Amino acid sequence: MRVAIIDYGSGNLRSVAKAFEHVGAAIDVTADAASLARATHIVLPGVGAYADCMRGLKAVPGMLEAMEEQVLAKKKNFLGICVGMQMLFERGLEYGSHNGLGWLKGEVVLLEPRDPSLKIPHMGWNNLAFTTPHPLLTGIEPGAHAYFVHSYHAICKTPLDILATVEYGQTVTAMVGQGHIMGTQFHPEKSQKTGLRLLQNFISL
User: Fold this and answer.
1) H helices of 63-110, where?
2) Whole-angstrom Cα distance, residue 88 to residue 80?
3) In this structure, are residues 119 and 107 in contact, taking their beta carbons and an 8 Å threshold?
4) How far apart are CA 56 and CA 52, in angstroms?
5) Per the structure, how many domains does the chain have?
6) How confident is the model at residue 11 (pLDDT cuts 50, 70, 90)?
7) According to the model, what pLDDT value does residue 50 have?
8) How far apart are the C-alpha atoms of 79 and 91, rounded to whole Å?
């Protein structure tokens, strides 16, 4: 398999690439839209503000069109990480309302934990609770730890798109999946054993 990690100027690319290398994937960190055609799996990392990430992605010549062709039309397996997952939804409400890719139904809103002692951003380890079976979860036990850094979270209109949640003063979407389109709010490249198993599962699909 060959994993294309999309470089649009926003993402923890080196750590993501190293994690995929660790599980045996050939990787291509790329801003070349044409390279997606050579990939078997496509990954969209994301760090920072929703609007900035969408703006950066749109600025890469031909990248949105290539993503639509390779993921939506040819159904190549796709993984969005952190803001890369958030961009799968219809819009993000960080510093205004901004359109996303619209591949999944829902929107991205500010975390509002009921416990005022819980700080924003949500930063650190949390326990995953599984909601919908999916091959991406193979070999990962309920309650497994994953590493989060985020202030916004996805509200899914389709409950079956939610694969896992965590509790942080409210129920937070931690993983999503609709067939071959998948995403994690947490950082698998920073989530040690849990993250590496998830990436291994992804490249095995």
Assistant:
1) 63-67, 83-86
2) 8
3) no
4) 6
5) 1
6) confident
7) 96
8) 18
| Domain carrying residue 49 | 2-204
For the segment 146-160, what is each residue's pLDDT rounded down to a tens digit? 999 999 999 999 999
CATH number of 89's domain: 3.40.50.880
**What tens digit of pLDDT does each residue of 81-129 get?**
999 999 999 999 999 999 999 999 999 999 999 999 999 999 999 999 9
Residues with active-site annotation: 82, 187, 189
Q: What is the DSSP letter of 172?
A: E
149 touches 121 (CB < 8 A): yes
Beta strands in the chain (DSSP E): 2-6, 26-30, 41-44, 77-81, 91-92, 98-99, 106-110, 122-127, 129-130, 145-150, 152-156, 162-167, 171-178, 181-184
Model pLDDT, residue 1:
87
| DSSP assignment string, 118-164 | S-SSEEEEEE-EE-S--GGGTT--TT-EEEEEESEEEEESSGGGEEE
CA torsion sign for 203, 26, 79, 128 is positive
pTM: 0.97
